[in-house]
# Entry
Amino acid sequence: MQRKTDIKMSLNAASQYYIGIDGGGTKTALCAASLNDALPRYSKTSGSSWREYGISGVAQLLKDAVDSLMEAKPDQIGGIVMGLPGYGESEEGDCALEREIQNTFAPIPVYITNDVEAGWAGSLALEAGINVVAGTGSIAFGKDSYGKTVRCGGWSALFGDEGSCYWIGRKVMELFSKQFDGRIPKDELYSIVRRELDLKNDTSFIDLMHNEYLVKRKQAASLQLLAEKAALAGSPSAKALYSEAVRELLLLATAVRSQLVFNENTWKVSYSGGLFKAEELVLMQFTREIEKSGGMVCSPRFEPVEGAVLLAFQHFYSDGLDEIQKILRKEKLNQ
# Structure
């Protein structure tokens, strides 16, 4: 028989809110959910990369965002999971970030992880499998039937992020300059870039890239949209670029797969990030190749911020996991 004190604690846990945070370099999403509230609370704030904004700056940004979301009522919060960019990449930085956030949010319990785990938790609803992210950057995360986790990619914009929008953006710069020089034949990519960027002359491309695009990863990543236009218009160089990007994303998935053990004969792969919106050029190719390798591509079930909420329930109130998934599914149907 359950003791009265246990029943009281369980009822209190059920009435509290559990918060998921999906951090990013340019924006951060928050979601607070409770079993006693049919409508989860959502909000957004600016980027939460400690490398870019500093550890104390990120901690205060998140505190302000949580206070605003919950109307400054910390007693209603049962726990917070923060998926933050850059976490797990620096032992010294991780320790300092943990210490600052724990001090800032005390006595609220907080679990910190990399934002890629929140993406996995949302896309696969905590089920065993692999999530491949191709947005501004690229990374993959997997968890197998025995709880082992593996992360792959996401090293650096300078020597990584292969297959991402940023990586494609840099390749667009390379292809345009080579086509201008005559090192490779001009095709639709050359004319589309020239037109869309309103270049008065081709060499003005250099100043434009240095002054406006290379200084901001998101801006450089936006050049991927020009590559997409060029590929759909028939550009051989742009088509080849997307095929190369898909190969890089497949390397992420298969590298994770090789280090995990799944009970099912078919291993699940989900995806997130803006590049997969290019369905004909990316998602269809990616799906076809994963299936050839014995995998099964699954559409994302929840957003990364909702994945962080699921992780929050898993860590702080696992008895409520099934019910909160029902609430989140109903919310998606109503959107």
About this structure: The first strand starts at residue 17 and ends at 22. The chain has two domains: 17-125+302-334, 126-300. Residues 126 and 289 are 24 Å apart (CA to CA). The beta strands are 17-22, 27-33, 41-46, 77-84, 110-114, 129-134, 138-143, 149-153, 267-272, 295-297.
